[in-house]
Design brief:
By secondary structure, the chain is of the alpha/beta class. The chain has two domains: 228 residues, Phosphoenolpyruvate-binding domains (TIM Barrel, Alpha-Beta Barrel); 52 residues. Helix content is 45%, strand content 13%. The strands form two sheets. Strands 1-2-3-4-5-6-7 form a seven-stranded parallel β-sheet. Helix 2 links the parallel strand 1 and strand 2. Helix 3 runs parallel beside helix 4 and helix 9 packs parallel to helix 10. The longest helix is centred in the N-terminal third of the chain and has 18 residues. It is globular, with a radius of gyration of 22 Å. The chain starts with a helix and ends in a 14-residue tail after the last helix. The relative contact order is 0.08. The structure holds glyoxylic acid and magnesium ion.
């Protein structure tokens, strides 16, 4: 799996010491992870290791062994089931100690905080600001569903009996607000029915539409759909680039120095430009090219 992951078109790979790793396998897995990071081959991907959460006895050894062994070849530590800002502060200080001891650049290794229970969600603003190392806030739906006693076994799908909206809307939005308020990424967690691509697309489409920056994939088969759903549709990308060009022209001397103008049947102003910047940035990051180009009206 590790070898295969090196060649997959995912933006990040995380190697797991937590829930996908049985307790008896954890000491061996630390060594496998250090070797895999140091062997390289991860160009173009963020390299992340998920350690065990701080209510277990494993966390400190996970961090010390992995960062001492492969800190130069590691971008972030993912801390699961974060419940307080203090837990993030612990990880920040521990990373600083190891960086100083090993002669690594202090502060380079980031932290990804997974929100997986009610306490973590209630504390999410403090967690998001607990360290300048925080790069990402992640929703962990499986643990979260268990933690709030949700009566369902299918991660990300609406619990049977709840027929009046999206049972995850508040949680997703709460995490998104904390992330945006501190300018860090918001990432949606896994979809476990790996053969159900329609289900994956349905659930992924929701967090992508809200403004999330990405979602976990558990299987190579989920990657293309995920990349597609987090990219704008071609018509939206073209529209965004056209708004930027048109607004640039309308606000110029030649375009009449106008702060509000008509683009076809649509009024555009500074707020339109800001929305267009978001869609255009997502499209450019995905390597999209324009299929339609606005041109200024002829004299
Ligand atoms: C991921 O860790 C989850 O609990 O969904
Ligand atoms: Mg979890």
């Amino acid at each position: 799996m590790i070898d295969k992951a090196r060649g997959l078109p995912a933006d990040q790979v995380f190697l797991d010491l937590e829930d996908a790793c049985a307790p008896l396998a954890k000491p061996g897995a630390r060594k496998t992870i250090v070797a895999a990071l140091n062997e390289g081959g991860w160009e173009g991907k963020a390299r992340v290791v998920r350690v065990n959460d701080l209510t277990t006895e494993w966390t400190y050894r996970d961090v010390v062994e992995v960062v001492e062994g492969a800190g130069a070849n590691l971008d972030c530590i993912m801390l699961p089931k974060v419940q307080t800002a203090g837990q993030v502060a612990w990880l920040d200080l521990t990373l600083t100690q190891i960086e100083k001891t090993m002669g690594y650049e202090v502060g380079r290794i980031g932290i990804e905080a997974q929100i997986e229970n009610a306490k973590g969600l209630v504390e999410v603003d403090a967690i998001a600001t607990a360290s300048p190392r925080i790069e990402t806030i992640i929703f962990g739906p499986a643990d979260f569903m268990a933690s709030i006693n949700m009566k369902s076994l299918v991660v990300g799908e609406q619990p049977t009996g709840y027929d009046v909206g999206d049972a995850y809307h508040y949680i997703l939005m709460r995490i998104l607000m904390a992330a945006r308020a501190t300018d860090v990424q918001a990432i949606d967690g896994p979809y476990l029915q790996i053969r159900d691509l329609d289900g994956f697309r349905r659930v992924t489409g929701r967090s992508a539409a809200l403004g999330y920056d990405g979602k976990w994939v558990l299987h190579p088969g989920q990657i293309d759909a995920c990349n597609e759903l987090f990219s704008p549709r071609q018509e939206d990308y073209d529209h965004a680039e056209n708004i930027l060009d048109a607004y640039d022209w309308f606000t110029s001397e030649a375009g009449g120095k106008r702060g509000a103008a008509m683009l076809g049947d649509e009024m555009i102003d500074e707020a339109s430009r800001k929305m267009a910047l978001v869609v255009s940035a997502k499209g450019r990051a995905a390597g999209m090219t324009r299929t339609d180009r606005w041109t200024p009206p002829a004299e």
